[in-house]
Amino acid sequence: MPKVSVIIPVYGVEKYIERCVRSLFEQSLDSMEFIFVDDCTLDNSINILCNLVREYESRLAKSHKIVRIEKMPVNSGLPSVRKFGLQFCTGDYVVHCDSDDWVEKDMYKLMYEAAIQYSVDIVVCDYLHTDGDLYNRRFRGCYTPHIREFLYETLEGKVGWIVWNKLVKRSLYDNKIIYPLKSNGEDLALISQLLFYAKSIVYINKPLYNYFCNDKSITRMSSKDAAIKRFLDARENLNILDDFFEARQLFDDRYETALVNLKFKQKQFLYLYLNDPEVQRIWKIHYPELSTKVWYNSLIKVKDKLKFYLVIARYRLF
Fold first, then answer.
1. Dist. CA 132–CA 10, nearest whole Å
2. Cβ neighbours of residue 212 closer than 8 Å, sequence gap 6 or more
């Protein structure tokens, strides 16, 4: 059985996939499983991947690394691809890697050894936002050794809710996970559920994952339609999270404060397009309770509160 399974979605990354794959195939940890999921990419990404598999064939065999290339029936988006890849995982631990990013050579060795040494369900590391050249900004992955506190800090946005800096015991996925299928806020919906079921966590104070800041990324697309889609997708994923925790009676004041803050952040997607009647209609329909709750929320900065109420007054969004 592999020690670690890595799920890597592949779509439209022919410019970047070689860097990602080399960083994976050259990992110092032995006995690994790489599951590449082709989301019906239209470019040359899969051909590049296959060439690299052939190039590393001998090295992979010596270090007991397995490579699988699976394909989605239709183009489905990142959340569905990740869920699809899980069914092929056989490793003790599971981790995700985006195919335009790359990892440090010892990332999975350090994380796996920490998981075994401390007998934990989840291992978290720091990460970099980088353009691959001059820009490098480090982000801390964790501030507490307590799993429930880490869950709250994740919900509150004090730490990143991304999946790719977290090594997760595969058995956690055997719980009743509600899988998000929309592409905004999906990491928060998934990670929060896994943290709920986890009993222990350990933190590695090293930036082991490199998140590539690609200006052409879908998360940076800006238009009215894109803003509406981001908002509605994030809302659907937040509903998954809210339903999950409500069913398990995790609904205290701290959670409520975090939930209001998350809804507030989603509303900000719409700010630039509030002169449009359709956007105004969407604003009024969703989260009307925010008009009375934002001002008293301790997680929201005063300047952001003031802007929120000025926006409401300017466009008469009562």
1. 20
2. 16, 98, 100, 101, 102, 130, 131, 132
Sequence ranges of the domains in the chain: 4-212, 224-315
Short-list 205, 4, 22, CA closest to 113: 4
Confidence of residue 248 (pLDDT cuts 50, 70, 90): confident
Question: pLDDT category, 134, cuts 50, 70, 90?
Answer: confident
Q: CA-based Rg of the chain, rounded to a whole angstrom?
A: 20
Contact assessment for residue 199 and residue 147, using Cβ atoms and an 8 Å cutoff: yes
Q: Are 299 and 261 in contact (CB under 8 A)?
A: yes
The pLDDT of residue 156 is 96
CATH entry 3.90.1150.10 includes domain 4-212: no
The DSSP string of 27-86 is -S--SEEEEEEE----SSHHHHHHHHHHHTHHHHHHTTEEEEEEE-SS---HHHHHHHHH
% of the chain with per-residue pLDDT over 90: 90
Three-state DSSP class for residue 248: coil
